[in-house]
Amino acid sequence: MGRNSKVNIIIPVYNAEQYLAKCIESILAQTYKDINIILVNDGSTDNCGEICDLYAQKDLRISVIHKENGGVTSARRAGSEYAKGEWLSFVDADDTLPPRAIEGLINASEGVDIVKGSCQLVDDEGNKIPMLVNKIRISGCQFIFNTLHNKINFLPLWGGIYKRELIDSSVFDVSPAKIITGEDRLNVIRICGKTDLIQLIPEIVYEYMQHKESVSHKFVWTYNYIVEYDDYLMEIFKEKNVMEVYHEELLKYRISALVRLIGLPTMKMRSEYIRRIRKDHKNTPKSIGQRITLFLAEMPYWLRNPLFHLYTGIAKYYRSRKIR
Predict the structure, then answer these.
(1) CA dist list (Å): 262 to 38, 250, 275, 276, 298
(2) What digits encode the pLDDT tens for the residues 268-319?
């Protein structure tokens, strides 16, 4: 066993002492036993380092890396470089795995480089919402389409297993420490661009804990962040010369990011973001809704805000009429 185990499970750990033991226990309870848990203590200032070391003393399948704080992407990279197993899996320190998670993923792995399962959202009160996918094999290109559409099972690194050879230094180079939310999308797109076939399974293999104090709940998006994030996202597609393959999905993603902040008065960075969209997607067919959104986004705030609310209200009304 050890890091030569078939499945290496990498857990970035930062100030998660409240949840860490439960996370580790859920992995030790896996029905599939040929695993190694790699705990990467990313400069925690609480008792996480001690908790990691205690578990490593109890179970030989646990390895610990202590490093200076560099962010979740840096921690995942450190764990991946240390790992020697055939498959890698990623788990956040405040989440848990159902007992048959790894077994279910491995059983579905024949002939593919990636297996992704369904997940379950769990709030602070213990309410659970399953997010299921169908059992199907799709291409890496199709997976990236779904990632750009912000579908929950396609966005994160967690909830799956990846062949070790897919995870090289380029995967984690693309997401620096200052990208503190949305980094998974960048990593997933890098990985899925290297494979032709991905297996999806309906079994719930991951429990995602939605804590109110988590980064994803507290983070406030700004135009500055969207533009900076867009730099890293577009770098991936441009360096691989696949802009034409994904141009429609990228337009949809960028418009959705624009809509998120269209009601804010900030002008400078919004103008830059709109300029990029118009330049990169000059020849991309646009829906009426996308054209209206871009038109409204360029208006002064005092006019844009009420008109956008009017437009979204009308669109919502007509969508509800169609459903009936």
Answers:
(1) 42, 18, 15, 16, 9
(2) 778 889 999 999 999 999 999 999 999 998 888 888 888 988 988 888 888 8
Instruction: Write out pLDDT tens, residues 224-247.
Output: 888 899 999 999 998 888 888 999
Q: What are the beta bridge partners of residue 206? A: 119
Report the distance separating Cα 139 and Cα 133, nearest Å. 15
pLDDT of residue 243: 86
Residue-averaged pLDDT of the chain: 91
**Residue 266: half-sphere exposure toward Cβ, Cα within 13 Å:** 18
Largest CA distance in the chain: 64
How does DSSP assign 223-268, residue by residue? HHHHHHHHHHHHHHHHHTT-HHHHHHHHHHHHHHHHHHTTTS---H
Beta strand ranges found along 43-125 (DSSP E) = 62-67, 87-90, 114-123
Nearest to residue 91, comparing CAs of 156, 211, 10, 32? 10
Pairing of strands 160-163, 136-138: unpaired
